[in-house]
Structure formats: C-alpha cells, structure tokens
Amino acid sequence: MFSIRTGKRYYIEAIGNGRSDWGDVDPVTKQTTGNYGDKYTGSIKESESVITKENGFSNIISIDGGSPYSIIDELDKKYPSI
Fold it and tell me: For 67, which DSSP code?
C-alpha cells in the first residue's frame, strides 16, 4: 500500500496455512467438491513470506485478525504529511 499522505510504502501479506477448502458445493450432498485450494489459497505460509529482514524489511508487524489497513493508518499518523 502506498500512502498518499506521507509517501511511505507498506507491504502486506496474508499469512495462513497456505491452503483453502474452496470448491463447488454439490446441491444434493451439500459437500464441497473440486480442489481449488491448491491453486487459490488466499494466503501463504509464513515460511514462504518475502517480507523478511533478509530481504531488507524492518519493523515487521504481525496481527491476528482485524484490518491491516487500520494498523497502517495508525503507523502512518506517526509521520509528517508530504
């Protein structure tokens, strides 16, 4: 995310178990069919994250639930506007 107010860049990754139970719901059995979880996970495993100190990131923050944008808004308030 790029802050228009401060000019700072924030990087966000959804960390999870790296898979999902996405698929089609069979109208008869009400069971999920198809295996789309391997292709479209919605998150990555923490070990696959590119947001690391080795890649030049500092001030790495992990949150459990909630909106990452509200955290970014709070962090952004600490910096002067451009």
Answer: -
